[in-house]
Amino acid sequence: MTESPSGIRSGVPMQVPISALLLDPFNPRLPESLRGGDQSDLAVVLEMGFDAFAVAQSVADNGFFAAEPLIAIHDEIPGKYVVVEGNRRLTALIGLSHPEIREQFADPSRWEAVAEKAAMSPEVAVPIVVHTNREATHVEVSRAHVVGKLQWRPYMQARFIAARVAEGRTIKEVADLIGITKSKAADLYRDQAIVAQAETAGLNTGEVERAFSVLTVAMGNTKLRDHIGAPLGSRLEPGQAPVPPGKIPELKEVISWVFGDEEAEPVITDSRQMSALGNVVASEVGLASLRSGKSLEEAKQQVQSAGMDPRERLLKRMTAATNALGAASDDLAEHATDKQVVGLVSDLESLVESMRNVIDQAANEARAQ
């Protein structure tokens, strides 16, 4: 453990009053417009968007569990701590102990009832674990959200990866840090860069951020990815724009077809239709149909009328790919250190990861029905 300026070691458990705790103004759950915002504003947004009330009810009924301490770092103000993990729980504690803040929540009346039951003041002490700096918390925070019981939504995972890469870490280092494969981390990095690029281009990305996992399925489809000119995640260099400038109109098309926009509803109703959309977009006949305002089903019929059978083509291609990979594995050991061979294996990993995302997303949606 390292020593902090105040002499407190990193990762040391403490008991501090709620009044000494601050919500993280750089929490990846927060929209960009609120980064660095006022504590009251942060609490209102977190309460509204992340169901802090459910946590408050649990605290009122059962108390705050010492086995789940908040993870914090020292603030610039002596005696204050910024909570970098546990902001939803801290929002609940603030709502229960600070009447002037909970009265700003969307439904203050329901908070009053649980606050009365909890009888909690700002001076109530809660458990925290103090680290010397934000970087020292990364392993603990990321594993709790990405592979732990309280997982971040995919977009927040992607934002976390992008932030660490911006600090100078490699994709491989971040993947190891949070316990996911390098190819998955690379794809998440690419997909958040696509969202950022779309926002910069003036596109409405609100729905894309909320349903980010659907974008990962879309970008796992080679035909849709080729339509906007985006590379495999393993081929995207840090800081590079994934979509070429000349392909921004195509990016707008894909976002519209998948998520809808101000002018039209999406042409798919769930991610299991992504393969069908990709097949239609890859066909000149199908693409022209979508661009003319036809539904996905109408465009599919026009593609099929042109003599194409997407399922048959899929099976033939996958069978050929399986046979080719089986044959290639016979020669792999002899050339396992060849940079080009290693790069191609990374591409294959990324492609298989994308295909698995499509299957997993379809299975999740099937179970939800």
UniProtKB/TrEMBL annotation:
This is ParB/Sulfiredoxin domain-containing protein.
